[in-house]
Design a protein that fits this description.
The complex is a heterotrimer of chains A (171), B (217) and C (266).
Chain A: H1 2-14, H2 17-27, H3 37-62, H4 66-74, H5 79-110, H6 121-132, H7 135-164
Chain B: H1 2-25, H2 29-44, H3 47-62, H4 68-105, H5 110-140, H6 152-162, H7 168-197
Chain C: E1 5-16, E2 19-30, E3 34-38, H1 45-52, E4 60-65, E5 68-69, H2 77-83, E6 84-87, H3 99-110, H4 115-128, H5 144-156, E7 162-166, H6 174-189, E8 193-197, H7 201-207, E9 210-215, E10 218-223, H8 225-230, H9 235-247, H10 253-262
Parallel strand pairs in C: 3-8, 3-9, 6-7, 7-8
Antiparallel strand pairs in C: 1-2, 1-4, 4-5, 9-10
The chains are: A mainly alpha (171), B mainly alpha (217), C alpha/beta (266).
């Protein structure tokens, strides 16, 4: 089971997001599968993000000592209990900061879907810019919006982490 | 094309990254503040937007013509630099934490401590992260195609324009494959470098990976 | 007097790959008995414990705990492990839960206790090990000795018929060792069946009903504490005890005298 998963992760991590978007949007139709722009965008971002998340969780799992499972099993807890009450909560706490980075990455990555025409911030700013030729102002504003959004998320995420996560050291 | 762009960006980016990263870690606020702003800005804005800015907005501002290649290199270098700066900063920070006392005890001044003790270790510690940034830069070089620069991705898409009947799926898959190989090579080089520079016993967290959490009987 | 046997191990053989760790080991633990196992690192004593509660598979032999065969299908493992509790050298408390929550977790999930009930019971157990005042602390905030006592309370929450202790005090500062041993002593007095792997000879001498010396996967000697510790019949036992005692200078000055005498025994 490890091999297919590794292949999945490695492929999606080493191929540019843009190329994935193009494959889904321009490539699939020639094979008979046509997806809407929005669907392509979501699919591409999901595929890409999932590969990185897998790595984050893998690292997190590695940071959990084997003794945790042993102790839980020794109490008689079943596989389901061990995962749900002991491993996953610790995993979440350990990977919390890294998960925040993934969220930010998603926001920044979403800008790329503008190449297939989705009306997101970058695309809109480009369109306005091309109509008014005020590229500078438009892009500065768009950049500022992204900046504020990202910084806000970073700070809120970190604050939430400090407030709610206790007892487990994070990655 | 792709390689040239990426290579340039990596070189400039790494150089800038080291400078800015160290500035960010500095005790002098007039170094730290601009560095922090630089890093924060260019890591919070999508690379695509930065590219657009370099290609469309800068020429208007400075009344010069900026060729696609130059815009792409500039934007990519700055982007790479911001991320490299983070890598440098955290690597140096991680090492300094433990080593400062030891170096001081030996009577080294701050500069000596840095050059002989901190930097060599930071170099090793930062390799995995740096490789990550390099691969990211390589992948984001594909965006240059959006502003018309004919690199790998651009060529792949152009094929479709020229010959609509061609199996663009296969072509694009091929494009993806080539990136995959290039990224893989970079990662491999990184691992080789790590091994070459490795000091026995100086393990990173990765060397103690628990195989599986769920195989207790 | 034939007391019921809580743990019966027969002809247990276990290898890790090519290395043989346990060779044809047999032992029996009666209800209320305290068996202390001593031996060098790597002699197989930890592995023995881990085979008993199913954490390690074994090649041949049989282990029966309270009527349950350890080699039976996995489905029964939960029941097995609820019957015999285990205390680890590095405590293995769940770091994301408070002391109370650590103790209450298993009863809530396995005995269908409500949160209030389980936590109330947990508090009683924490009181028993002397840590009621730290009920809401997280493991990171507790000292090693406190963590281990919470671990004992956690194991007791499942009302096991027997408890296995794998070097419970080896990771502790000398000052806190006493607090944990005191709890173990109390458990023994209350009639808990225990198998304790330890280097604490004082504990073995005072609390054990039987002492067993294991070396290189084989039980070398077994018997009453007085016999094994003060007048061992095997040379290997003597060598081991001497090495232990020389580590702790003057810790047990009393017992060193009989060893001089023992050397002349057959």
């Amino acid at each position: 089971m490890r091999i297919p998963a590794t292949i999945y992760v490695e492929i999606l991590r080493n191929v540019p997001l843009l190329v994935i978007i193009y494959i889904l949007f321009y490539g699939l139709p020639s094979e008979g599968v046509t997806l809407g722009a929005f669907q392509c965008g979501v699919a591409a971002l999901t595929l890409n993000g999932s590969a990185y998340l897998t790595e984050v969780f893998r690292g997190g799992l590695g940071a959990i000592p084997r003794g945790q499972t042993e102790a839980a099993r020794s109490l008689g807890l079943t596989h389901r209990h061990v995962l749900g009450s002991v491993i996953v909560p610790q995993l979440f706490r350990i990977t919390f900061p890294a998960l925040g980075n993934q969220v930010v990455g998603l926001i920044l990555g979403s800008a790329l879907v503008s190449v297939i025409g989705i009306n997101e911030l970058t695309h809109v700013s480009y369109v306005i810019g091309s109509h008014t030729f005020r590229y500078f102002e438009v892009f500065v504003v768009a950049g500022a919006l992204y900046l504020v959004a990202v910084q806000l998320i970073n700070r809120l995420w970190a604050a939430a982490g400090r407030k709610y996560i206790r007892g487990v050291t994070t990655l | 094309m792709t390689l040239k762009l990426t290579a340039m960006a990596l070189v400039f980016g790494s150089a800038a990254g080291i400078v800015v990263g160290l500035a960010r870690a500095s005790r002098r606020w007039w170094l730290r503040l601009p560095a922090t702003l630089f890093i924060g800005t260019f890591r919070s804005i999508p690379i695509l937007l930065q590219l657009f800015f370099a290609y469309y907005a800068l020429p208007l501002l400075f009344h010069i013509d900026v060729p696609q290649y130059a815009a792409a290199t500039l934007a990519l270098s700055v982007y790479c630099g911001a991320y490299m700066a983070e890598v440098v900063r955290s690597a140096v920070g991680a090492v300094e934490l433990g080593q400062r006392a030891g170096a001081a005890a030996l009577g080294l001044n701050r500069l000596q401590a840095f050059v002989y003790v901190v930097w060599p270790q930071a170099l090793r510690v930062g390799i995995p992260a740096a490789v990550g940034v390099y691969v990211m830069t390589l992948k984001d070089s594909s965006l240059a195609s959006v502003i018309g620069y004919l690199e790998l991705t651009g060529t792949g898409v152009a094929v479709r324009e020229i010959d609509p009947a061609s199996g663009s799926f296969t072509v694009l898959l091929g494009v993806g494959g080539i990136y995959f190989v290039m990224a893989w090579i970079i990662s491999l080089c990184g691992q080789l470098l790590e091994r070459r520079l490795a000091v026995p016993g100086f393990g990173t967290v990765r060397s103690r990976r628990v195989r599986s959490v769920t195989t207790v009987a | 007097m034939d007391r019921e046997s809580v743990i019966t191990v027969r002809n247990l053989t276990k290898s890790f790959g090519a290395t043989s760790v346990l060779r044809d080991v047999s032992l029996e633990l009666s209800a209320g008995e305290v068996l202390v196992v001593i031996g060098r690192s790597g002699s197989g004593k930890s592995t023995l414990l881990r085979c008993i509660n199913g954490l390690e598979p074994f090649e041949s032999g049989s282990i029966v705990v309270d009527g349950m065969n350890v080699n039976a299908k996995t489905a029964k493992r939960s029941a097995l492990r609820q019957t015999v509790g285990m205390i680890f050298q590095n405590f293995n408390l769940f770091p994301h839960l408070t002391a109370t929550q650590n103790v209450a977790l298993a009863p809530r999930k396995l005995r269908q206790r409500s949160r209030a009930e389980a936590e109330a019971d947990a508090l009683v157990l924490l009181e028993k090990v002397g840590l009621a005042h730290r009920a809401r602390a997280y493991p990171a905030q507790l000292s090693g000795g406190e963590q281990q006592r919470v671990a004992i309370a956690r194991a007791l929450a499942m009302q096991p018929k027997a408890m296995l202790f794998d070097e419970p005090t080896s990771s502790l500062d000398p000052e806190t060792v006493g607090s944990v041993l005191a709890v173990m002593r109390q458990l023994a007095q209350e009639g808990m069946s225990m198998v304790v792997v330890t280097h604490e000879m004082g504990f073995a001498r005072d609390v054990a009903d039987r002492v067993m010396f294991v070396d290189e996967g084989v039980i070398v000697e077994e018997g009453l504490p007085r016999q094994v510790l003060r007048a061992p019949s095997h040379e290997r036992t003597r060598v081991f005890l001497r090495s232990i005692l020389s580590d702790r200078d003057g810790a047990d000055a009393q017992s060193s005298a009989p060893f001089e005498a023992a050397r002349y025994d057959s």
